[in-house]
Predict the structure.
Amino acid sequence: MSFNEVYITGTSCYFPNDPVSNDEMEEFLGFINKSPSKSKRIVLRNNGIKRRFYALTRQGKPTHTNAQMTAEAIRGLFNHDSSKLKSIELLACGTSSPDQMMPSHAVMVHGELPETNAIEVVSPSGVCCAGMHAFKYAYLCVKTGDVNNAVATGSERFSGVLRSEIFEDEAQKLRQLEENPYIGFEKEFLRWMLSDGAAAFLISNKKNENGFSFRVEWIDGVSYANAMEACMYMGSEKMKDGSLKGFMDFSPEELISKSVFSIKQDVKLLGENIVPLGGLKLKALFEEKNLKPEEVDYFLPHMSSEFFKSKIYEQLQKNETPIPYDKWVVNLDSLGNVGAGSVYFMVDELFKSNKLKKGQKILLLVPESSRFSYMYALLTVC
């Protein structure tokens, strides 16, 4: 059986409202205990983020849903020509912050696109890897000939769970923050890291007649949940034995008093494992795919914080697969961490740049700390 070549022939992104600077953040998210955060400066220094986007007004009122932002990113693929939306054959939408638990995120996005036809939709769940899972599903469907084209998306709307009322009872840990940057990866850290936005890929079995396309060489992934306990979680609490107690097993009062629906992180697990485990599979892929590090022209690593940049670089060196910084494409500082959408934004930036030459290779790396999952992909400019 022969398989189709698969290409990314278009990219698009959508951000709600104007960018929010570091100084403005609490105007949108609110003040905890009516006081400016004492840890904000330290956390921002470690994560390196200078601005981000919120689907909120300055008074903290929502302006967009996740589904609405995603639909706008999809429209951008077709220059907002509604007639062209009818050509979409498959829609795969990944997010870790859907607007509701049911219906699924992808059908809600489809519902925001009345211009489209009745098509197959799929909603991969997860955290940062969810966008890559959507990408892989779309890629495989095009590759096998199930469809001729597909749209894959990655998006987040975290701002609604970063509002101050969620964190009113959370203690500040400035002294610990000063002593150990990893402690910043607890509840309040996430307020200064996460950003809203949506992005989309148009995926086809035919490359563009004019301009560049990205041929998808392969997409691969791995989960270490068989050996690792949960590290980042929401809608649950971590028990002493490492298991998670889900929200359905709490009383209504506990859901509020324990801020069960806030995003939490086991910072010790994160610091010890997120980079080394990601390096294991990447080293294996270099060998399995017969890929040499010097053949990589652009390296797009998703990072939750600039703090990890040197750690990833050192791990690449340790694995004897070094990739110098001048080949890295990272826009965390200007966009914030958009979770499942972040790698899409990096690809979009490169796709629309004037740097590209045919034959160049682009390596994607997306780690997910929730229970240590990773996705990787290789693209070729054509």
Summary: The CA atoms of residues 86 and 359 lie 32 Å apart. The mean pLDDT is 92. Residues 217-222+266-381 form a domain with the Peroxisomal Thiolase; Chain A, domain 1 fold (CATH 3.40.47.10).
